[in-house]
Structures are given as C-alpha cells and as structure tokens.
C-alpha cells in the first residue's frame, strides 16, 4: 500500500489548482483545446494532460498560457477553490440547474445534510447517469463536452442515449425492413469472399416501395409512425 508523501500531496494539489484555473479560462474563452494548441504552440495532448491534472506545465508553457489569457502566472497556479470544494461558478451552475430544468426537490424528506433532486426530464436524467458512471474516466471532460454539444438533439433508444442522426437511421431501417427479416439472407461472394444480402423479387419491390414512402414522409409523419410502431411492439 503506497502512502503519499507531503511532497507528493503538494504536487497533486498543485496539478488540481492549475487544472481548475485553466479549465475555467478555456470555458470563459469558449475555445477548444486543438485551436488553443495551434495559437500558443503547445501540443494538444500536453494541454489535455494539464486540464485533466495529469502533469505540471513547464515555465515556458506556463508563460504562454498566461500571456494568451492575459493573466498572471500566479493566478494560474493559485487556489481559488475554498476548502469545502465549491466555487462561485459551482453555485451559479446549481442555480441554473434548478431554474432552467424541470426538477423536483423533496422538501418534506430533506434535512440539513442531504437533499434529493429528481429530474423530470428523462434525457437529462440519463445524461446525469452517464456523467456519474464516467466521472473517474480520464476522458471525462471530453464526455461532458460531447453530451453538452449533443443535448437537444439526443433521443432515447432501448434505454441508451443516441444522437439524432443515428436515431433517424434506426427509424428508417425499422420502417423499411420490419417484417422482412426472414426473406433477407446473407451470402458470401465466391470471387471476393465478402458477405452480401440477397432476397427475392417481391422483397426487393417491397423494400423499394417502403424506401420511397420514407423519403416522401415529413418529419412529423415519421415521428407519428414511430410512436405507433413502438406501441405495437409493446403489445
């Protein structure tokens, strides 16, 4: 069992302080790491390690970052977070969470030590579950950014979050091929050894017909069909 020395603990704290300050500046500037890397001349992998509190910047890199964001090097490495682990931005984000999302706080059963918040939006609930399950991963910041970027276009399919384009492809596939699976068989081409799908003339005509129908449907008609399709599947 390894025990952190005081020097090691100082290093860990230093990394966390720097990572917190750097992430705040990147968030406020609304710039992605790849673009920042090109501007200040620091490898993007190195910047990601800084943001994830995995490494300490060299003096030169510290100066580059400070000059770009127009801050002092001291402010980059100082601790802005109180001992309780919260900062002003955390409270503001909590305020936005309560104000902007459909949440329910169980006031009857909460006490001075704990509060239970229930999200009435199923997608938000699933996003929070994804974030909670991913919080110890090295690419947590990337996962968070992807979820934030995709929110609003995400759909739920078989209890998984998927982007809207993938969802459209699933709907189209179900519309065209539902009920035809037994007439479609996979073959191996003798000349190439690659698999291909084969079906009879009737099935081919039906696939063409359904494809044309799908292409001519509006997004509202597709949504209505999908809801009815799911109801039928549940029976």
Cα Rg: 26 Å
Report on the biggest sheet. Answer: 2 strands, antiparallel
Approximately what portion of the residues adopt beta-strand conformation? 5-15%
The strands making up the biggest β-sheet line up spatially as 1-2
Could you tell me how far the N terminus lies from the C terminus, measured between alpha carbons in angstroms? 56 Å
Low-confidence spans: pLDDT under 50, at least 5 residues?
A: none
Number-wise, the strands total 6
In helices, the fraction of residues equals 55-70%
Instruction: Return the string of H and E elements.
Output: HHHHHHEEHHEEHEEHH
Please work out how many helical segments DSSP would assign.
11
Structural write-up:
4% of the residues are buried. This protein has a two-stranded antiparallel ribbon. The protein starts with 5 loop residues before the first helix and ends with a helix. Strand 3 (154-157) and strand 4 (160-163) form a beta hairpin. The protein is 59% helix and 9% strand. The model has no long low-confidence stretch (mean pLDDT 83). With 235 residues, it is mainly α.
């Amino acid at each position: 069992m390894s025990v952190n020395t005081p020097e090691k603990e100082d290093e860990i704290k230093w990394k966390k302080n720097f990572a917190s300050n750097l992430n705040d500046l990147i968030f406020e500037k609304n710039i992605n790491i790849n673009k920042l890397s090109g501007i200040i001349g620091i490898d993007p992998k190195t910047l990601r390690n800084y943001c994830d509190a995995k490494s300490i910047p060299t003096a030169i890199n510290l100066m580059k970052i400070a000059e770009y964001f127009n801050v002092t090097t001291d402010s980059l490495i100082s601790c802005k977070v109180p001992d309780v682990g919260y900062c002003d931005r955390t409270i503001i984000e909590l305020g936005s969470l309560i104000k902007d999302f459909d949440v329910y706080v169980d006031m009857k059963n909460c006490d001075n030590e704990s509060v239970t918040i229930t999200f009435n939006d199923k997608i938000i609930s699933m996003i929070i579950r994804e974030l909670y399950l991913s919080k110890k991963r090295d690419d947590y910041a990337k996962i968070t950014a992807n979820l934030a970027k995709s929110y609003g276009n995400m759909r739920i399919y078989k209890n998984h979050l998927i982007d809207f384009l993938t969802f459209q492809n699933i709907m189209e596939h179900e519309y065209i091929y539902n009920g035809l699976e037994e007439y479609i068989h996979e073959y191996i081409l003798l000349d190439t050894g690659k698999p291909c799908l084969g079906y009879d003339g009737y099935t081919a005509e039906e696939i063409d017909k359904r494809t044309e129908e799908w292409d001519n449907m509006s997004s509202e008609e597709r949504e209505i069909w999908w809801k009815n399709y799911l109801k039928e599947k549940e029976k």
